[in-house]
Specification:
7-stranded antiparallel sheet, Serum Albumin, Chain A, Domain 1, 20 strands, disordered N terminus
């Protein structure tokens, strides 16, 4: 008799499945063991009589094409995820790629198992708590830190995909990479968004030399929309990974090109071949908690996304959100206040739990969240918000890192009912803007706090350290009802992701909206100044919120979502949603076309 899914996962989590990427290379994890939260009581069930078909929701039509082609060939959701990521790294390099990292949630329709795969970047052994300080001991400007070699962590997405494929792939490892290889060789048309983001990067930081060579026609003019861009170096890199496995990325010529790019001025990094060779992808039990009649599962640390999204929902569980829908100021007021409280706790307590104690159970404790909800007035916005003291909380300093915009999210459901919800990133616009073997390298280490202690001298949970993973806000999410998969959702957007995803979950689960309608609701992000997408808000409703004491700041932090979702309708068929703020789409396999 099979064990229940989460009992099996508890055993997996206890032994922590690791992927060793250098043949014959012993690896030693010098970081302390992650502190493990109490076991989830939720157990998803195997899919019953799956008839939903297959679907992909992703940020670019070419990536959707690649994923559907793999699904049409009998591939699994993980096989399709490989194809989607490989193409996104080519056609949407401003957001993600094999030079970055990712988190992936997987639901196994045959067993009911829900597993979290961690492909987050890791700081090199040569990293230090002062790596983002200048010669006078002051924090570097964010643009200077981004383009430094110090910003590049060991990329994790290739290792993570290989680990997930070993357990859930149905096609040969090489097959899902082929679409991206062919597309890179024949070329693709530069999209409006790729051009727009290249122009934005030029204004924000002035393009670094590698980015300038790749993204301009003459070293000055950004590639026009429709320009056919070929990347034979990327094709060659993918071909090596496809034929040799992930070890081709973490050793040999590709690894050497990564090290050479990181070692360039300004501010060369310390990343070494040994750092690359010892990288390991990790499998965790996800963090799952009930929300009304649903169970919601998200990522564990070093991502703060799962904890923060569940905190928002846990606070809102104390209010009748169905009676306060998206047309009421009260519904938005409660959502904003819950976000403010969850972000305050997230900022103070969450980091890489191999290095700092993260009180996951305390932060999500029902009584604690009730006490946080009790701080919310129905008639007036809170004047100030600070972190609470959840059970098991250690002293730790708050920190405020810069926004991340180089991220993408996609959801895949295959013909057997297996599901992938994956958020993937290079952190900023085109990452560090340094290229190696045809792909951009991340600047993920700028997700660390630039300081090790706060103004009061208290250690900051997200301070840099050798071998440490920077805190993330990525929030790939799976929702279940009666043990059955209901909804997969996630978004890019840096620390705003938590606001985007929590809004969409409330829209679907409380306000009864379709995924598309929930995604298209105006965004509000209540971390520090409340960012609001004014162009999508009904003006009288916004004025009513202001009369409750809310002050809003328009800005791109509210507009930068790229939400993608797939939901099972009551009749068992699939319905997708793709954020109109970007170029993606949701498409079912039977409507894929040629």
């Amino acid at each position: 008799m099979n064990e229940p899914g989460f009992m099996r996962r508890a055993c997996v989590a206890a032994s922590t499945a690791l992927l060793f990427l250098s043949a014959g290379c012993a690896t030693v994890d010098t970081a302390p063991e992650a502190n493990t939260p109490a076991a989830n009581t939720f157990e998803a069930a195997p899919a019953r009589n799956w008839r939903g078909g297959a679907m992909v929701a992703a940020a670019n039509p070419l990536a959707v094409d690649a994923g559907l082609k793999v699904l049409g060939a009998g591939g699994s959701a993980v096989d399709a995820a490989i194809a989607i990521q490989a193409v996104l790294g080519l056609v949407e390099p401003q957001s993600s790629g094999i030079g970055g990292g990712a988190f992936l949630l997987h639901y196994d329709a045959a067993t009911g198992d829900v597993v979290a795969y961690d492909g987050r970047e890791v700081a090199p052994v040569g990293a230090s708590s002062t790596m983002f300080l200048d010669e006078s001991g002051k924090p570097l400007s964010f643009p200077a830190a981004i383009q430094s070699g110090r910003s590049v962590g060991v990329p994790g997405v290739v290792a993570m995909l290989e680990l997930a494929h070993r357990e859930h792939g149905r096609l040969a490892w090489a097959q899902p990479w082929q679409a991206a290889i062919e597309l890179a060789e024949r070329g693709f048309a530069v999209s409006p968004r790729m051009r727009e983001i290249a122009q934005m990067a030029e204004r924000f930081t002035t393009l670094a030399p590698d980015a300038r060579r790749y993204l301009t026609t003459d070293g000055k003019t950004i590639l026009p929309v429709g320009h056919v861009l070929r990347n034979t170096d990327y094709a060659a890199t993918l071909r090596q990974i496809a034929t040799q496995g992930a070890r081709a990325f973490y050793s040999g010529p590709i690894a050497q090109s990564i090290i050479a790019a990181v070692a360039q001025a300004p501010r060369p990094g310390t990343l070494s071949l040994a750092d690359l060779a010892s990288y390991r992808a990790v499998k965790h039990e996800p963090v799952c908690r009930p929300y009304r009649i649903y169970e919601v599962c998200g990522m564990t640390p070093p991502s703060s996304g799962g904890i923060a999204v569940l905190s928002v929902l846990g606070i809102l569980a104390n209010f009748d959100m169905a009676a306060n829908d998206s047309n009421t100021p009260q519904g938005w007021h409660l959502l904003i206040e819950a976000q403010r409280l969850a972000y305050a706790d997230r900022d103070k307590y969450v980091g890489d739990d191999r290095f700092v104690h993260v009180p996951v159970d305390g932060l999500l404790d029902t009584n604690y969240l009730q006490s946080r909800a009790a701080l919310i007035s129905r008639s007036r916005a809170m004047a100030t918000v600070s972190a609470g003291t959840p059970p098991g909380a250690p002293p730790s300093g708050a920190d405020h890192t810069g926004p991340s915009t180089g991220t993408s999210h996609f959801v895949v459901v295959d013909a057997r009912g297996n599901v992938v919800s994956m958020t993937t990133t290079v952190e900023s616009l085109f990452g560090s803007q340094r290229m190696a073997s045809g792909f951009f390298l991340n600047n993920q280490l700028t997700d660390f706090s630039f300081r090790a202690v706060d103004d009061a001298g208290v250690a900051i949970a997200n301070a840099p350290a050798p071998g440490k993973k920077p805190r993330s806000s990525m929030s790939p999410t799976l929702v279940f009802k009666d043990g059955q998969f209901l909804l997969g959702v996630g978004s890019p957007g840096g620390n705003s992701i938590i606001g985007y995803v929590s809004k969409t979950l409330v829209g679907v689960l409380d306000w009864g909206l379709t995924p598309d309608a929930a995604i298209e609701l105006p965004n509000v992000v209540a971390r520090g100044p409340v960012l609001v997408e004014e162009s999508r808000f009904d003006a009288p409703l916004l004025e009513q919120l202001k009369s409750l004491g809310h002050t809003f700041r328009p800005g791109r932090g509210a507009e930068g979502s790229g939400l993608h979702a797939i939901m099972v309708r009551p009749d068992g068929t699939l319905e997708g949603g793709a954020d109109s703020r970007r170029e993606g789409e949701a498409r079912a396999l039977d409507t894929a076309g040629p």
